[in-house]
Specification:
Strand order of the largest sheet: 3-2-1-8
Helix content: 25-40%
Oligomer: single chain
CATH topology: TIM Barrel
Mean pLDDT: 93
Largest sheet: 4 strands, parallel
CATH superfamily: Copper homeostasis (CutC) domain
Number of domains: 1
Number of strands: 10
Order of helices and strands: EHEHEHEHEHEHEHEEEH
Low-confidence stretches: none
CATH architecture: Alpha-Beta Barrel
Distance between the termini: 16 Å
CATH class: Alpha Beta
């Protein structure tokens, strides 16, 4: 029986296939990696839901940048959540701030209520709050299932002790899921230090070009990414081994 849940951040159908091959348990499905992820298309969500037998949590984020949204942007998010529910997703991943940087708990509670029976992960808007422990209490009250966090560091392994404190504080009230920069060479330390049971990784690699001839303008159209199945397998192997020590 596995002790570790591995969530894979994927930006394409191919990435989702590799997440499954790599031993992922759940997919955070996103678009637009250049902006840290935005809401994926209806068509991509539908195809992944129909053909990939992993838990599916699309990202609900209408644009890049901060997580403070206008009323119009929030309305768009609510429409996207309804689409995810209609498609049979298991949950969604999202986060909303107030103008002072704190989590907008009223909006998060509204999201949780609308999303039900889907579950809700609060994404790294949590890493921008002035008080993580107060924010954790608010997200628990709002009904969120888990929090994705780097412990307010750029990379999760840089804040392992802080994440360990969050895991202890959360107890069984909410799941703390470390994410950002998780690789095979740091997962063992993270597991031993934090004792978290869920981890978020992208194992991101560049997708090779498939057209027969390059073009001088090709770089202007962005870079396609996928997930490295072998790297995901190694993350899982090392995480499971570290958890048992």
């Amino acid at each position: 029986m596995t002790n570790i849940t591995l969530e894979v951040c994927a930006f394409s159908f191919e990435g989702c296939q590799n997440a499954r091959l790599g031993g992922g348990n759940r997919i955070e499905l996103c678009a637009n990696p250049a902006e840290g992820g935005t809401t994926p298309s209806y068509g991509l969500i539908k195809k992944v839901r129909e053909e990939i037998d992993l838990k599916l949590y699309p990202l609900i984020r209408p644009r890049g940048g901060e997580f403070y949204y206008s009323n119009d942007e929030f309305e768009i998010m609510l429409h996207d959540i309804k689409q995810c529910k209609q498609l049979g997703c298991d949950g969604i991943a999202t986060g909303v701030q107030r103008i002072d940087g704190n989590i907008d708990f009223a909006r998060m509670r509204r999201i949780v209520d609308l999303a039900y029976p889907m579950r809700v992960t609060c994404i790294r808007a949590f890493d921008l709050v002035p008080d993580m422990f107060a924010a954790l209490d608010g997200l628990i009250d709002a009904g969120c299932e888990r929090v994705l966090t780097s412990g307010q560091a750029e990379k999760a392994y840089e804040a392992a002790e802080t994440i360990a404190q969050l895991v202890t504080y959360a107890g069984d009230r909410i799941i703390i899921m470390p994410g950002s920069g998780i690789r095979p060479d740091n997962i063992e330390m993270l597991v031993k230090t934090t004792r978290a049971t869920e981890y978020h990784a992208s194992a991101r690699i560049f997708s090779p070009a498939t057209v027969s001839q390059g073009h001088r303008l090709l770089k202007e159209f962005g870079q396609a990414f996928s997930c490295d199945a072998q790297q995901l397998k190694e993350i899982r192997r090392r995480a499971e081994a570290a958890f048992l020590k």
